[in-house]
Every structure is written in C-alpha cells, then in structure tokens.
Amino acid sequence: MASRPLSILFAPFGSEGDVRPLLWLAGGLAGRGHQITFVITPYYRHLVETRGWRALDIGTAEDFAAGMRNPLLWQPRAGSEHVLKIMLESLPRYAEVLNREGKSFDLVIGSTLGTGAFTWAEKHGIPRLMLHLQPMCLRSVDDCPVFIEGWEWLCRSPRLIKGIAFTLFDFVLSRKIMRPVNAYRSQIGLPLLHRVYEELWNGADGVAALFPDWYSPPQRDWPRNLRQFGFPREPVQSNPPALDPVIENFLAKGKAPVLWTHGSANLDTEKFAAGAREATGALGLRGLLVGPAFVNVPAEEKFLAVNHAPFAQIFPRCFAVVHHGGIGTSVQALAAGVPQLIIPRAHDQPDNAARLERLGVGAHLRYRDFSGAASAQKLRALLTSPAAAVACARHQKLVVDDQSLPVLCDWAEDLAGKSATVR
Fold first, then answer.
1. How far is CA 321 from CA 82, 200, 229, 236, 265, in A?
2. pLDDT given at position 417
3. In the structure, what pLDDT confidence band is assigned to residue 266 with cuts at 50, 70 and 90?
4. Distance between CA atoms of residues 342 and 364, nearest Å
5. DSSP 278-317
6. 3-class DSSP state for residue 177?
7. Please, what is the average pLDDT of the chain?
8. CA distances to 84, 202, 219, 345, 408 from 330, in Å
9. What pTM was estimated for this model as a whole?
10. Which end of the chain is more exposed for a tag (fewer CB within 10 A), N or C?
11. Which domains are seen in the chain, by residue range?
C-alpha cells in the first residue's frame, strides 16, 4: 500500500472499449484513496465525471466524432495508419493541456497509443505504466498475432520468416512514426528513440498485459519489463440501474435474442444491420441491434435497434452475441458465458477472432464474406454445438473468478512510490 494518497493521471486513447479498462483500474486505485484525473476526449468525458473524477479535455468531441466517421478507420491496413496519424497529431495537444494544468502527478497510466501523455510524463520525470489491452500489441516469433485479416499465413510461418517480417515492420514504422515522434522529442529536449517496438510501445517504467495466460500464453521474447494480469472487468453491481424501458420490455416479451453490435466507434454499419435482420429472421430468432448508427433501423416485434445498452447487464440475457471482435466486447461475452460470432474488420479484431475461435467459444466470419445467409449458417452451427456450450461455461468461470485488480494496483503504487523516493 502507498504511504500517502497519490495523484494519478489516466490517458486512454481510442474508443469506449479502450477507455473502460482504464476506468476499471482507476476505480481500484480510487478505492485506496488516490486522486484520479483523466485526460480524455470530451466525447467520453461523461464516463469519468459520473464516477466523480476530474476530466481534462483533449481535443473536441466534434473532432473525435469526425475521426470515427472517416471510412479509412475500418480498412484493414489504412485503418491502423489513420489511428497512428491521429496519435501523432495529438502529441503537442497533450503538452498544452497538461502544462496548463500545472499539476504534479505521481504516476501516468495510459493505453498503448497514449504517446502524448507518456512523452509529457517522461519530460517531467513522472513514472509511466503502459497498459496493453490486447495480445496484438505484443509480438512473438512463437505466438505471432494476426496483424491483418488474411495474414494468418505469417502465424504458421517458420520463426525465421516471422523475425524477418518483424524487422520489415519496424523499418516501415520507423519511417512513418519515429521521424515525427523524434522531431517532436527534439523540440522539447528529449533524447531520440531508435526502436519502435522496444522503446516507443514498450519503453515505459512498467508494461501490463491485461489479458490472462489462457487467452494469450506468455512468450520468452516479450518485453522484460512486462507483467501479465487478467482481463479488466468492472465489478458487477449488486443493484444496477434499471434498463431503458424499451430494452427491458423487448427482453421480457420473448425468448432471449441474438445481440448484434459492431462497436461504439463504427458508424459504417448499413451492411451489418441488414445482415443481422436477415440472419435472425432465417433462424426464427429475435434480434437486438446495438450501436450509434442503428437508431433509424425500423423496430419490429422480433427485432429492436438501440443506440446503447449496458453489455454487462444485457449479454447474460442473450442467446448469442455477434460482434466485431473488439477486446472489450469479447471479454463481456466471455463473462456472460454466451457463444460469440466474430466479424472483424481491422485493428486487433482479426487476432481476437482467431483466439476466441481457438478457445472454442465462438466462430469467425470474414467481413468480406458477411451476409445474412452466411451469418445464419455460422450461428446455427455454433448454437447447436455442445462443445461450444462447455467451452463458454469453462471460460466464463475463469473470467469471473479472476482477482488481478488488487495485484495491479499494488504494482502501480510501487512504481509511483519508487519514483517519489528518487525525486
């Protein structure tokens, strides 16, 4: 335990699924008496302020929404480049916001692409704890992630080929990322970085992998400053707030539905909505469609579309979940013990789809092959599989029983305490 209350800055980068794991850890640290501040897009400020914590705005809600509406975001290759471009453009904005705040923090905690906040912390001698939320952030020649849909061949390649591929990745990323990062670092008087993977994405004082070893086994070539924990999952409330009456009435009036969602940041979902309606109709099931782009989908007796729903409360009342493969949605479905059909598009989604399929809890359908008929066929096989039901029950228990939060909080306090002693 820390000898005094700490002032801790959280810096999430990404969509709601990237924000919630940091809320989980912040809750654990706040429960120990530490002061919590978030530097976050105003688009998600409400997630922080409803918990009684301070929120510093980075950018505008309009800019964030514009980034989500960009069709490049969901292209397999261009999507990652688009996200990295946003990250690079944000570097000086973090410095402006945090310098204006003028507050001394004991620790900065952020996700993989929280480079702006981490760079500011390095400049001011503040310890940094980086959180990797998905295995795709950690490469290994023995357990190579599926970086891009269709690149499963690399995972099956000899270790030498993987090593060469990693070297090529670093060369390309060095040109696209390290040059602008180092130009900025030079301006503020920080030494230049030379290795993207080792120094930029794993160079914090501590690196935490927030996924258990049964989901992604630890590898001998992972960073040495890394520790592995379980999935971040906020505790289930004993008295959760009542559901939206529209959702509650729909759930109560019939059999458990198949829930369809394609992520909180995906606004390009017309094809997905049409396939969801067709597939549930073909199977004679009810469907619940959740996402910000679905509000104009006509409601029917057996099919409802809503803007938002609390997955922790909703998933256990569903027959199955069809989703994009975001790590947050995947974990909620694992915790609910329901089978999953994953239809990935970009980023970490193909890798999560492959891992969930290997666990036996779900099936995988490529987005380019997605249709109502194809989804219905995959769902029919999944929902009638005794092996899938057993796998879902087994992994549900592993998720629910995990007790990683206290250990991770201990480590965060230790990192902050060591730095305070040095300073």
1. 28, 35, 25, 19, 18
2. 84
3. low
4. 5
5. HHHHHHT--EEEESTT-TTSPPBTTEEEES---HHHHGGG
6. helix
7. 89
8. 24, 24, 22, 14, 21
9. 0.89
10. N
11. 7-232+403-422 (3.40.50.2000), 245-401 (3.40.50.2000)
